[in-house]
Amino acid sequence: MSLKLEHVSYIYGSDTELPVHALQDICLEIPDGQFIGLIGHTGSGKSTLVQHLNGLIEPTEGLITYDGRNIWEKDFPKKELRSNVGLVFQYPEHQLFEVDVFSDVCFGPKNLGLPKEEVEARAKRALELVGFPEEYYKQSPFELSGGQKRRVAIAGVLAMQPKILVLDEPTAGLDPRGRDEILGQIAHLKKETGISVVLVSHSMEDVANYVERIIVMNKGHVLFDDVPREVFGHVKELEEVGLAAPQVTYILHKLKDNGFDVDVNATTIREARDTILKAMKEEGRC
Amino acid sequence: MLRDITLGQYYQTDSVLHRMDCRVKLVGTLAFIIALFVVDNVWGYLLAAAFLGVCIRLSKVPFKFIVKGMKTIVFLMLFAVVFNLFLTPGTPVITVWKLSITQEGIRMALKMAIRLTMLIIGSSLMTLTTTPNHLTDGLESLLSPLKKLRVPVHEVAMMMSIALRFIPILLEETDKIMKAQIARGADFESGNLIQKAKAMVPLLVPLFIAAFRRANDLAMAMEARCYRGGEGRTKMKPLIYKKNDYIAYGVLAAYLVVSIVVGRILPI
C-alpha cells in the first residue's frame, strides 16, 4: 500500500497569459509507516503537492498511483482514496461546522457510509488519539481555544482512519506550547497507529525532532529527499532557498570550527547534547 | 470552477475607456440603459448596438471575455423570454394546451432579449473597465448632493467597496472549505436536490463564520487607523475631469438625444 507520484507536473491557469508552474516533474513514493517532513519556502509548491496526494487536484502531467492503480482512472473510488489518504488543511479549524465537537468528528466516517456504532467508535478513538478531553465532547467547537479547535479538526480527519495522514502546516498560528503539544501528539499517534505521516512545514525546527525523512521543495522541484542528517548537511543550499537548518546544526558547526570534535550531523537536541558531552569528556573538561 | 464568473470583474489593460473618469462611465451606463428602454424600433436598437460596439472596441476588452461572463445569466434571460412569450395577451399564433404564443408575445420577448443582452453587456463593460475602488469613488462623488438630505453617501459607498472587495476573498475561502470537506468525504455533486442542499451545510456554516471573522477583523483594523466616516475625509487621488471626459459627456448627450429621436419618432 503505497502512494507513488511519477513525473507529476501542475500548472495553474494554463489557459491564461500567465501560467504558473506550481510543480515540475515530481517523483516521490510514500511507503507504509514512514514519518516524512515536507519542507519548503512559501510558494514552493508544498500545498499544491499535498492536494495531489488525495486527488483534489488533477496533475497537468504525470501519474499518481495508489496501491499500483492510477487514481485518475475512470472508476477509481475517490472516496476510498480520501479516507486512506487523510489530508488536514492549513488552519483546519476553519472547516468546523457542527453543533458539537463529537458530531463534527463523526462527519468524515459518516460520509464513508459506515454504521452508526462504527462511526461513533471511530470518532471516540480519534478524539482520544489527539488527547481531547471527554468532558468537552458535547461542547460547541466554536467555543474552544485555538489549540483545542485544531485538535478537533485533526481528529475529524483521523476518524476516517487514514493509512497516510498529511498535515499542511499543523502548527501555523499556534503559540510555542500549542505547537509542541500538537507535534508531540502527532508523533504519539504515529507510534500508536503505525500510519504514515507527512508533515508539511516551512520550519526545520518543527520537523527535525520527529521525522525520519525530509523532502525539501523549491520552486516546484524536489531539491532534497533524504534522511534528516543528510539534508541538514547541505546548510548552504538550504539557506539559498530561504530555509534554515535547525539551530543545533549551527551550534555544532560553530563548535567544530572552534576546535571541538563534535559530530555536526546530529539533528535533534538530544543527539547534540550527547555529542557535545562526548567531545568535552575527550578533552577532559568535565 | 468558481473563477468563471466575469460579471462585475475588472479587465486589466490600458485603453481610452480605462483612463476615462469613472463618473463619466457611470453616467454613460445610465444614459445607455435609459436610451435602451426608451427606444421602441429597429433603428433605435441598431443605434444602441453600434454605440455598444464602438465602446467595446475602444475598451480593448476581448469580446470573448465579455460573452464568457454572459453565460451565468443565460437562465435569467430564458426565464424572462419564455414568460413574455407565453403570457402576453393578444392575437394567438400557436396554441399549445392552455398556453398560446401571441404575436405581441413574440415582439415582447424579442424586445426583452435584445434589451437584456445589451443592458448586461453595457453594464459589464463599465465594471470591466473600472476598478471597484474607482467605481465606488465615482458613485460617492455623483451622489454627494444627497448628503444635504442626510443620506449617508460615504458610508453606502464604503459598504459597496467592501462588499466588492470581499467577493474574490470569499470565493477563495469557499474553494478552500470545499476542498477540506471533500477531503473528509463530503460529496457536493451527486444526489437529488434535497441531498445537495443538505450537503451545502458543511460549506455554508464555515463560510458564514469566516465572513463574520473577516468583517470583525476589518472593523478593528479600520478603527485602529482612526476611521470615523466620511466627515472631513480627503482623498489621495481626487477625481478631476479632463478634456477627454468633457468630450465623452458631449458624445453621450448627443447619443441620448439622437436615440430618443430615432427610436421614438421613426416608424417600425
Short description:
The complex is a heterodimer of chains A (286) and B (268). Chain A has helices at 46-53, 78-84, 101-111, 116-129, 146-158, 176-193, 204-208, 228-232, 235-240, 247-257, 269-282, and strands at 3-12, 20-30, 35-40, 61-66, 69-70, 85-88, 164-168, 196-201, 213-218, 221-226. Chain A has 286 residues and is α/β, with parallel strands linked by helices.
Question: Would you give an account of this structure?
Answer:
The complex is a heterodimer of chains A (286) and B (268). By secondary structure, chain A is of the alpha/beta class. Chain A has helices at residues 46-53, 78-84, 101-111, 116-129, 146-158, 176-193, 204-208, 228-232, 235-240, 247-257, 269-282, and strands spanning 3-12, 20-30, 35-40, 61-66, 69-70, 85-88, 164-168, 196-201, 213-218, 221-226. In chain A, 42% of the residues are buried. The mean pLDDT of chain A is 89. Chain B is 69% helix and 3% strand. Chain B contains eleven helices and two strands; from the N terminus they run H-H-H-H-H-E-E-H-H-H-H-H-H. Chain B has helices at residues 16-19, 22-38, 42-59, 63-70, 74-87, 103-129, 132-143, 153-183, 193-199, 201-224, 243-265; strands spanning 92-96, 99-102. In chain B, strands 1-2 form a two-stranded antiparallel sheet. In chain B, helix 2 packs antiparallel against helix 6 (103-129), helix 2 (22-38) packs parallel to helix 11 and helix 8 (153-183) packs across helix 10. The two termini of chain B are 44 Å apart. The model of chain B has no long low-confidence stretch (mean pLDDT 85). The A-B interface holds A 51, 54, 56, 79, 82-83, 86-87, 89, 92, 94-97, 107-109, 111-112, 142, 156-157, 160 and B 176-177, 179-187, 201-202, 205-206, 209-210.
